[in-house]
Amino acid sequence: MSADPAPSARRTKLVCTLGPSTSGREAELVQAGMDVARLNLSHGSAASLAAAAAATRDAALTDDRAVAVLADLAGPKIRTGEVEGGAVDLAPGSSFVLSDAGPRAGRDGARAGTAARVGVHYRGLARDLRPGDRVLLGDGAAELRVVRISGDDVLTEVVRGGTIRSRTGVSIPSDRRSGGPLTAKDRADVRSLGALAPDYVAQSFVRRPEDVAALRSLLGDDGPPIVAKIETRPAIERFDAILDLVDGVMIARGDLGVELPFEEVPLVQKQLVRRALDRGVPTIVATQMLESMISAPRPTRAEASDVANAVFDGADAIMLSGETAIGRFPALAAAAAVRIVEVCESKGRAHLPSGAAPRPGDAAALALAAVSLADVEPDVAAIACYTRSGRTARELASFRPTAPILAFASDPSVVARLALVHGVRPAAARAPKPDGEQMRFLAGLVSASGNLPAGAAVVLVASTAAPGSGPNVIDLHRLPVRGRSTDD
To answer: Is 263 exposed, middle or buried (0-12, 13-18, 19+ CB in 10 A)?
Structure first.
């Protein structure tokens, strides 16, 4: 990674899920605007996931961009087995059986599922469900209602038909799900994370802060930051406590559609994004953003509005799932998301949210002062900081300045992690000398980047105190004009 922050007017970041459709095409996604590559550990072999991570990092290096890698643990996700031909259509009003008749039901070597019956990789399904329960398949691609339980079979009626694919997700109410927050697969995947060297780890089906603490104990205090996936009602109820323990949250709307009436999901999305923003915690809005682009080369107007609403809610990032992982047009889907975001941010500024509410702490107070200064000075082209951990850049970003944030760090992992944060252009730089000349050092980094016009003003945020103590000084610096010094 060079020391030059990649110039881009876009502030809302893009997360793309890698999969079969992106194999060998990671560079196309980086060029289209991918900021975070999501590796879904529910799918793919260890070798294919490691290859995708390596290809992403190579492409980011070639394109001179910071791109983070997010490893998404499967969690206690329920999935079907294989289905005939890879996909089957369920007709409304028909009967459909979810079954786990034995340890290998629905798995390799078992009979493939049909439009009447499919195996499920979850031995507790018949025990956990009750007649009348609602079950969604494939994040709402089809909706079922439980009619009765017969042994290991769950007999359902198809309320809303649709196409389901092999190994599609089966969503049941979280208060019905038994078992702990981390499965045996999750624990094995955590032990194997070294091959991926992820910049973030996402935890599925978080229900309480103790779930996050359990994962942190496995990852270790020095392990990757955790992104909690908010997809259960208990997680909504304990959202603020979860925010205390995580470095990001993902509003995973697919399973929220089981926990909540569908008409409440948009409001909950807005509320959660706002609460996280006020706490300075980055947010990702996910699931079915541009779903039609799995098979079509352009999104629907409703999907474009969905992406726009996430931008106007104040999300740090939006995420594409099947659109890129298994879709026919992964690069076009990424480019479409970027186009929508850019138009919303450039032409819809009146609809963009205000920054975080003031909060306690010296770092937050200084960040708010820096952003306020940048916003009232019309010729300020950027806010710049050197950050050891990324915290200063995140604090600045939470107040949603109109100017971009140039964040320099000597730790490559910090540079990559900041690729997720709203409005931040991260870049690698050498560490400053402990000689108290932090402002001069930072001004030199900004000048050397070459991405700002001569004579532009930059708000510098730095620390003259001991390392790790946080920023304590701001300065309005003007870049030199050729032939003139800023001291003139």
So the answer is: exposed
Q: Which of 391, 393, 384 is nearest to 446 (CA)?
A: 384
Q: Which two tokens stand for residue 406?
A: 């140039």
How crowded is residue 47: how many other Cβ atoms within 10 Å of its Cβ? 9
Dihedral of alpha carbons 138, 144, 145, 147, sign: negative
Closest by Cα among 40, 18, 13, 20 to 29: 18
Burial 344-353 (b: 16+ CB within 10 A, else e): bbeeeeeebe
What is the tens place of the pLDDT at every residue in 269-295? 999 999 999 999 999 999 999 999 999
- The pLDDT, as a whole number, for residue 8 is 59
Question: Which DSSP string corresponds to 265-331?
Answer: HHHHHHHHHHHHHHHT--EEEESSSSGGGGTSSS--HHHHHHHHHHHHHT-SEEEESHHHHT-S-HH
Q: What is the sign of the dihedral through the CA atoms of 185, 190, 194 and 200?
A: positive
Structural domains of the chain ordered from first start: 13-75+184-348 (3.20.20.60), 78-176 (2.40.33.10), 362-478 (3.40.1380.20)
The residue type found at 182 is L
Kindly state the tokens that stand for 263. Answer: 């008409």
Say if residue 173 is exposed, middle or buried (CB neighbours under 10 Å; 0-12, 13-18, 19+).
middle
Question: Which pTM value belongs to this model?
Answer: 0.88
Catalytic amino acids?
38, 79, 229, 287
Collapsing DSSP to helix, strand or coil, 478 comes out as strand
Sequence-distant (≥ 6) Cβ neighbours of residue 291 within 8 angstroms:
303, 322, 323
CA distance 336 to 334: 5
Q: Are 472 and 387 in contact (CB under 8 A)?
A: no
Question: What is the distance of C-alpha 111 from the center of its chain?
Answer: 36
Residue with the two structure tokens 């390596």: 54
Q: What is the pLDDT of residues 388-430, one digit of tens each?
A: 999 999 999 999 999 999 999 999 999 999 999 999 999 999 8
Instruction: Pull the structure tokens for residue 190.
Output: 């955590």
**Sign of CA pseudo-dihedral 413, 416, 422, 427:** positive
The tokens describing 365, both together, are 């107070």
